[in-house]
# Entry
Amino acid sequence: MDLRIASYNILADAYVKPEWFPHTPADLLRPRSRHALLARRIVGLDADIVCLQEVEPDSFAALHETLAPRGYVGVMAQKQQGRPDGCAVFHRLERSPGHRVHYFSDRLEDGRISGHLALVVDFDVGGERLRVACTHLRWDRPDRPVEQHQGMQQATELIDALLRKDPEALWVVCGDFNARPGEPLVQAFEAAGLLDAYTGRHQPTCNVNGAPKAIDFLFHSSALRARPDRLPALDARTPMPSEQEPSDHLPISARLLR
# Structure
């Protein structure tokens, strides 16, 4: 096994408000312009598997139009509760037995199911079974107790309902975790036996509200070796989205070897 995998929160158009991105020219915030820049950025990653978060039907269609001629197959799963976005996975591997969508059982403040999900795509790589889970865990107040934290509940459910029920598979779990290195949510995946591809090499992956932080992760089974790609320098003054970086997140990527 020798492949490249990437994870990228592409910023849903529904969440783009010009006042939130005062350093970004207005024309770069328009969906048509940004979709073209996102497609170019993703093509430049040259990844065999690309896991995306905050994907809407329109952005999925636009990306598919660019990626399909380059040999990529895509699948998307939309969040429930009327949310405009979801997760998508594009890949250019020959054998993918299928995919499944796991909707988390955590609840909103009003008692409804949150509608957040993990999109899991299976691959047959060199006769081995690789399962890739793409997710976007919920943000929650940092002062909320760990046992009540929404993202922590989702992480625990993902580990118990997916990883521990299929320990023989080679796993990759990636996405926007809305947590930082060393926090309990991240430690939960490490305690489940997964390795963080960027351990010791973390750099900020977004600068939302002018606060650079690393909240995007790529975890993998210990049977795999990861060679993570270095990220562009990012600080509080870096304008995002921009022509070079059309989201408010950077993509993260790594070469995985067996």
Q: What stands out?
A: The CA atoms of residues 122 and 131 lie 5 Å apart. The chain is about 20% helix and 30% strand. The radius of gyration is 17 Å.
